[in-house]
Amino acid sequence: MKKLPNHILFKLTFVIFGIIILITSKALSQDFIHQDDFKKKTSQGIVLVEFWAEFNSINQVNLKKIYDCKKYRVDMSLDPSLMVTHKVMAVPTVVIYHNGKEVKRFLPSLMMKLDVEIKDIQDVIDELVDDKF
Questions:
Q1: Contact 105, 86 (CB under 8 A)
Q2: What is the C-alpha to C-alpha distance for residues 56 and 80, in angstroms, rounded to an integer?
Q3: Coil, helix or strand for 35?
Q4: Which of 1, 4, 26, 30 has a 20 to 30 A CA-CA distance from 93?
Q5: In DSSP terms, which residues pair with 94 in a beta bridge?
Q6: What are phi and psi of 122, to 5 degrees?
């Protein structure tokens, strides 16, 4: 078997590493949702929306362990009208929608931190999934 030159191995390793980073970051990230696509994206299936603000990013909700739903984030500085429309008074606020209807809302404490365990959020989603069957 012929050995590849070092410069080709380096380039190949760099490309593979870049692909892994890209796939991992996409899988772990939350997409942003905006006024123009909010209704469409929340109207089908189970959808979790975190109403969020950059100034409070230290308290953003880590939703990497949440599954069986679509996950989106609303940036209040970009879409303040969504905050008003959905009566969100503080961030982070997490709302679970099922086929366009609000099912559950998790509110932050006075410290602007969500005082709920990820397990509690997942339990609501699991219940909705179980109701399908």
A1: no
A2: 15
A3: coil
A4: 26
A5: 50, 106
A6: -65, -35
Domains of the chain: 30-131 (3.40.30.10)
Tokens of 110: 């006075």
As given in the structure block, the two tokens for residue 5 are: 């030159």
Q: Token pair 């397990």 is at which residue?
A: 119
- For 80-106, give the DSSP string: HHHHHHTT--SSSEEEEEETTEEEEEE
Instruction: Copy the structure tokens of residue 85.
Output: 């429309």
- Residue 50: its H or E element: strand 46-52
Contact call for residues 41 and 72 (beta carbons, < 8 A): yes
pLDDT, tens digit only, all 133 positions of the chain: 677 777 765 666 655 655 554 444 343 456 999 999 999 999 999 999 999 999 998 888 888 899 999 999 999 999 999 999 999 999 999 999 999 999 999 999 999 999 899 999 999 999 999 987 6
47, 69 in Cβ contact below 8 A? yes
Side-chain half-sphere exposure of 113, counting CA atoms within 13 A: 5
Query: Residues 43, 49, 53, 59: what is their CA dihedral angle, to the nearest 10 degrees?
Result: 180
